[in-house]
Amino acid sequence: MNRRMKKLFYCFGFVIGLFAVLLMNEALAQNTFLSDTLDAVHYDVYLDVNHQLQNQLSGHTVAHLTPKVASVNKVKLQLLNFTVDSIFQESTKIPSWNYNNDILEVPLSVLQNQTDTFAITVYYHGSPTIEPYGWGGFHISNAVSYNLGVAFDANPHNYGRAWFPCIDDFIDKASYDFYITAAPGNNAVCNGSLLQTTTNNDNSKTFHWRLNEIIPGYLVSVAVSNYAAVEGIYHGMNGTIPTYIYANPSDTANARASFIHLNNMMQIFENKWGSYRWNRVGYVSTPLGAMEHPTNICYPTGCIDGTLNYETLAAHELSHHWFGDLITCASAEDMWINEGWATYSEALFMEGMYGNEAAKAYRRDKMRKVLQFAHYKDAGYRALYGIPNQYTYGETVYQKGALVAQSLRSYLGDTVFFNAIKQIMNDYAFRSVSSSQMRDYLSAKTGVNLNDFYQFHVFQPGFTHFAVDSFKVLSTSGAFQTQVWVRQRLNNAPSMAQNNRLEISFMGQNWQIYKDTIHFDDQTGNKIFTIPFSPVLVMIDMEERFSDATTDCYRTLKNTGIVEFPETFFSADVLAVSDSAFMRVTHNWVKPDDLKQASTIIYRLSPNRFWTVEGVLPAGFQSKGKFTYTKQNNQTNGLLDNKLLPAFSSADSLVLLYRQNCADDWKITPFTKQGDPFSGYLIANELKQGEYTLGIGNPNQSGIEKTEEKVMKISPNPAKEGFYFEMNNNEDCILIISDLKGKIIERMEIRKTVTSFYWRAETLSKGIYQAIIINKQNTPIDSQKLIKE
C-alpha cells in the first residue's frame, strides 16, 4: 500500500482522551475476540453497486464459519454503518440481534461446536463509509466505485467491514465468491478469476468472481466502472499466468507503456522471493490508491500516464503478493513485515532491472531521508515493532523497514538470505507471522542466531554507526598482516548493537580490492587480517549494503570540475588530476568526537554530523571540497544544522573544522563561505583526506561570497547608544534582534513604507548580536551583526 501522511492529532483534554483510549481498547478487544472464537472459511458476497440504489450499496453476504471453541451460542461480525435488514442462520431467520454500527452480534438458534461449519447470512443496505482521512473505505460514484481496504485514521486499520460483514483482522483468512451487479455499461472487477457474466432483464450485469486462495477481509477488493482490459501473459515458475490491467478505455495505450516492465518485475520477484502463488496478475485503475488487494491492485489513475515515472510504485504493490498477501503481518504493530519488505522490493526491482548502481542510488536516497526526516514525520525515533497506531503507515515502517531488510541481507549474505525468505514464503503461505516468529524461523533456517540483530534493528529505536577507527600493517613477509580497529557509535539508540557482522574492504595503491568480514560486540572491535597486498585504504561496507547511520558514495575522478557525491551534502571541485583518483566520502549522521583541548576560538561542534574523506589520490591531485550547511526548517533541504545554529542566528560564525584521524584534535581549516546566513557551503580551499565537521567559532574567519542584495544598512556599527537602520524592503517584514545563543532581545514589525528608523541600545550589554529580517512567511531575507560597545 502506498503510504499517506496522517492527519494531525489534536488532544481535547484528559477526560476525552481517556475516553477515546477506552473505546479504542474496547474495539481492539472485540476484534481479537472475533478471530479467537470463530474462523471464517468462506464468504459469498452479493452486492448491487450504484444500480438499484443511487450512491448506496445493497446486498447480502453469506459467512461460512467454524467455531474455534466449544458451544458457541452467538456470532460477532464487523460491519460499518449500514442498515441491517435481516439475518439468517442457514435457512432459519434470526428474530433479533444487537448492532452498534460496528459490531453485529447475532444469537444462534443452534449451538455450534468445533467440528461444525455453519452459515450466517446478513442482508443490508446503505451509504458506505469513508474514513475521515478520505482514503480507506468504499468510494461510490457514477464514474467509478471501489474500495480501499485500509483506513489510516481508524483503529483497527482493517476496513473490509466498510462494505461487507466479516471478521476483520490480519489473522482470519477465507476464500471468496463475489456476485457483483453493476449498472449497464459498467464492469465489476474483483480478486481472483471471472467465472461468469450474466445479463439481467434491465441490461445490468452480474459478475461472478472467485478467489480460491485465502486472504483477510481488508485485502478483499471490488471496482466498478466502464473498464477496458489490457491483457498479457507471463510465463512463470509454475506455468503461464495471465496479466490484466483494467483501465479507462482512453488509457489503454498509456497502460501498456507504463507497465511495459511488468513481466520483468514478476521475473525478478519470483527469482528472489519464490514462485507467484496467485492465479493472475491484476491492476485496476482507481482515482485513489495504491492498495495491494491480491490480483486486483487498486492503482492510481494518474500514475497510468504512459511513462515509467511510477514503476517503483507498481513494483511495490506487486511485491505485496509475497509480503502482505501471501504472508501477512500478525498485527498492526508488525506492519513493517508488509510495508517495509514491499518498500525494499522497490530497490530489488531497481537492482534487477537497472543494475546495482541504480539500486545503490535508490537505497542511498532512502537512507538519507530516513536519517534526516523520519523522526520529524513520526514524532520521534521509533522501533519497527510495536509502532503506535497513528504511525502504522509512517516513515519508520516503510522506509526504515526497507533498510532493515537490506541490512538483514547483508548480515546473512545473498545465498542464505534469499533461500531463507523463499522458505518462509512456503512454510507461512496464506498465514500470518509476527516479528518474533519471523526472527525465530529465519534463525532456525539459516543457522544464524538473529536475536541480537532483531533486538537492535527491529525491537528498539535509533540507528547504529560503524567506522574504521584505524589500521596498521604488522607484517610484510609473504602476506601482509593487517590489524583493523573498528568502532560503533549510536544515533538515538538506547544501547549498542551486539554480534555485528560487517564487510571490510582493503584497497591497494593500484586499486586492487580484498574483502573479508569482522565480527564484534559493543563499542569497539579489532581483527588481524591476512591481505595479499599492502593496503593503503580500509573501508567498512564499501558497497553500501548495510544500513547504518551513514550515507556514503565513492567516485572515480578523471577530469577537473565539480563532482557530486549524492546524499552526502558534499561535492568536490577537482582542480588538478594527472591520473585517475579514487575518492570516497561518508556523511556520518552521528556526533563527532569532542575537542580534546578547550579552544578560545572554537565554541562548539556540530552535535549530529561530520564527514570522512578518504581515497587513493595520485601525486599532483588537487581539489576543493564543498560542505553543505543549512538551518532552514523544511523537509526538502533543511533540518541539518538547526541544533548547531540556534533560531534566528546567522551562519557568519560557522567554521569548517578538520582533523586527519581520531588521534588528532579538531582545528579550523582554511575555508571560504558561499551562500547566505541560512544555507550554503563551507569550501575547504585544499581538500585533504581525513574528517571534517562544522562548528561555531569567532565570527568572520572566512572569505564570504555573498550575492544577495542587502535589505538593511546599519550604522554606526559598532555603537554605544543605538543603531540607525536604513531599509530597502519591498514588503512588510519583521526585524528580530538576538544574541549569539538565539535569545530574542527585540522583535518588531517593519512596514514596507518605512525607509529608516533608530533603535536605542543603551541598556544592552556589550557584545555581539544578530539582526535578522524575515518576511511574513518566516523566510529569512537578510542578516547582519550588531556590535554593542
Question: Would you write up a description of this structure?
Answer:
- The model is unreliable at 3-33 and 704-708 (pLDDT under 50).
- The strands form eleven sheets. Strands 5-4-8-2-1-11-14-13 form an eight-stranded mixed sheet, covered by helices on one side.
- The chain is globular.
- The longest helix is centred in the N-terminal third of the chain and has 24 residues, at 14-37.
- It is of the alpha+beta class and 789 residues long.
- The chain has five domains: 14-226, Immunoglobulin-like (Sandwich), CATH 2.60.40.1730; 328-461, Neutral Protease, domain 2 (Orthogonal Bundle); 463-548, Immunoglobulin-like; 549-707, Chondroitinase Ac, Chain A, domain 3; 712-788, Sandwich (Immunoglobulin-like).
Largest sheet: 8 strands, mixed
Determine the mean pLDDT.
90
Indicate the overall shape: globular
| Annotation, overall tally of beta strands | 47
Rounded to the nearest angstrom, the distance between the terminal CA atoms is 62 Å
Secondary-structure-derived class: alpha+beta
CATH third-tier fold name of the largest domain: Immunoglobulin-like
